[in-house]
Amino acid sequence: MPRLKTEAAKKSLLRRVRKQRLKYITILPSLITVLNGACGFTAIIFASKDPQGSIGQFSYFAIAGYMILLAMVADMLDGRLARMSQNTSSFGGQLDSLCDIISFGAAPAFLMLKFLEYKLELAGFANHNFLHRFIWLAAVAYMSCAAIRLARFNVENEEDESAHMSFIGLPTPAAAGVIVSLIIFHQETLPELSDKNTWVYFICENAITSALPFLAFAVAILMVSRIRYPHILNQYIKGKKPFAHLIRVLLLLAFAIWNLPAALVFVFCVFAAGILVKRLYYRVIKKNPILQTVTKWESEK
Hints:
By secondary structure, this protein is mainly α. It has 12 helices and 4 strands; from the N terminus they run ααββαααβαααβαααα. The longest helix is centred in the middle third of the chain and has 33 residues, at 90-122.
């Protein structure tokens, strides 16, 4: 009899939990989060249009890439506004992840897929099933790992600001940035090279087209890895920093003013691969006495 009462109490508690309704949300952070998802959805729309179409001097592929970058700005602002106003909530975190999977999961994968399909068509490989399947597999692997990365982040994330000094695994905006920046560079900067140096254009064109699916696989693995990546804003910009940091930021701004697409490629690729290279350096060179001696000798020389 007591057992029956306990089970009845559990069922009653479950019914009360299910009847709970969300009564209050923070309006401004939620609107910015929805803007993030809207930008990702708009990027998908532009990526699905005529590959040769454009609005002014911007191709549809470039516009789709810039919409994903705008989604990154919205993603950076919404969580910071919520934490600054001390209005973080489980609802905000779930909404953010749902919008992120659109903007940094589905949109970059679809943009890469349509871009590479168009390049294959121009190269005369429109009916090459193996290449199409390989590109499709790269896009699916990227989107799947982005979804896994976001789900893991929801489980392990803490709402405290002090917990946002680093990320476990490559953040989805940075992974999307690697793919998107290369496509923007291809659409914005390479046409200028075609008029100046046909040989350089040919090399860059083939390098970007060939590397994109492999980069998609690489950043997909990095997203679900346990490699710890720093939070750029909290670790390198926020608070008091050495004077050298200011010089680096100014040089990077000058680079972006001179050529924004090239600066985007540099920033995202260095961020994604830099931590991996650093870990490899400390594991291989720092723990190898012979390599340490060679490195010291070269520095003294």
